[in-house]
Amino acid sequence: MKMRFNRLLMSVRNFDLSAYAHSVNTIGSLRDYIISEDLLAGQRTNGRMSNVRRFFCLFVTFDFLFTSLMWIICVMLNGEYIVKALIEQVVHYNIHTSLFDIVLVSFCRFFILILFYAIIYINHWIVISLSTAVTCAFLIAKVLYFDWPHSSQPVFEVLLVLASFVIAWGEAWFLDFRVIPQENYANRFIVANERTPLIRSYVQGLPSTYTESVGNFYSPQGTPENSVRRFQQNDRIPYEFIPIKFSKQDEDNYKHVASKNLIEAWKLFEEKDWVLERQFENDQVYTRLDQSRRKIFKLQAPIDVDPKYLLEELYYREHDFPMWNSNIKECYKIHSFDEYTDITYTVSKEAVGGLVASRDFVNLRHWGKRDHSYVICVCKTEHPSFPISKKIVRGENNIGCFVIETMDDSKKSVLHWIVNIDLKLWLPGTVLDSEMTNMMFNFIKELRNYISSKTQEIV
């Protein structure tokens, strides 16, 4: 693992954008991908402490030294001889007049955090949560018991208490939101690639990084019976994408979750409490409330197209969504488990006149047949190559689906689209309902126009 990561670092240092060119039939190496800062900061190179954890330990040390310095300044400002003042604060300690206990608490916090996170090297938030809780409880008690009316330097003493309180919470935040996530991300990346050989054969690699040629001798993947089309991996994945080779157990887990999601999506579709929200010509939008009182939307619209063709457009041609869907900025298939299950990455455009910024989504998709209808289930998931970024808000698709219902006329179908989304923002209910309804009507209009234009081109 260390050999692999050292080679990765050397590749990154030698990376030259001007030389970023290779044949379409050539397998891309790791130097063809831009490695994120989270991966480099969270990795333990040669068994040493990671960069992000080292910064955390420095921050903890700064906490103790800064608190001690502030306390000494407060003591000196009393105007007494330094030795006498220290004896009064330490030897003749009194909770009502001395601030030495704040320094002592800071030292205890420093000792405990360095012991568990630098020496023992645990990777859990429980220790810092306890230290922060104890610190806050003590500081609150200190404020209540301290004799503020007779204090000679109340401003500096208040600053000492507030600084200790803020820094303690800053340490907890940094460990929970930076150290642990970045180290877990780096560990998942290295473990996932540990099973791959150090020297890759010519015919080995992800289909997303090259195309088949005469020089690649391979056995085609079998197509299941009654399949709409052969399994295919999208070749338009952005170059920042770092390919991950999941273990057999991980792939089975994803498939198991996807199958359960499909069952839940079908149950949601068959619920009888859908209420008509709005209708436009033959298209209707229904709503219902889930257990958390969040509103779920369902579009029902007839469309003049063969159900299998519609399935192909909505599942297998996800990379074409930005061509016709005005709400989608980018859409990629980042991993395919089989013909029926994959993971996609989608970036939405700004909405509500720019009030709602772009969101990105990582979705686990799975399709199957239920009662003569095609069901495409979509639900949030995680992928090691696409962690949450500080540059864009990560939205979440709770269990939703497309249901393509077949009609007596084989050239027509009814599309049901259930949207169960969390945009990670607050909007008034009336505004959100109106925007979601308009978006769904606009979606079916653009889909009809796109399919109609493609049909005319074929004719």
Descriptive notes:
- This protein is of the alpha+beta class and 459 residues long.
- The protein has two domains: 1-16 and 23-218, no CATH class; 248-458, 2-Layer Sandwich (Alpha-D-Glucose-1,6-Bisphosphate, Chain A, domain 4).
- Helices cover 44% and strands 18% of the residues.
- The protein is built from eleven helices and twelve strands.
- It has helices at residues 2-13, 37-42, 51-76, 82-90, 100-119, 126-145, 154-194, 248-269, 307-316, 321-324, 429-458, and strands at residues 275-280, 283-289, 295-303, 328-338, 341-348, 359-370, 373-380, 393-394, 396-397, 400-406, 413-419, 421-422.
- The strands form two sheets. Strands 1, 2, 3, 4, 5, 6, 7, 8, 10 and 11 form a ten-stranded mixed sheet that branches. Strands 9-12 form a two-stranded antiparallel sheet.
- The longest helix is centred in the middle third of the chain and has 41 residues, at 154-194.
- It is elongated.
- It starts with a helix and ends with a helix.
- 26% of the residues are buried.
- Residues 7-35 and 194-239 have low confidence and may be disordered.
- It is found in: Membrane.
- Keywords: Membrane, Transmembrane, Transmembrane helix.
- This is START domain-containing protein.
- It is a multi-pass membrane protein.
- The chain crosses the membrane at residues 55-78, 98-118, 125-146, 158-175.
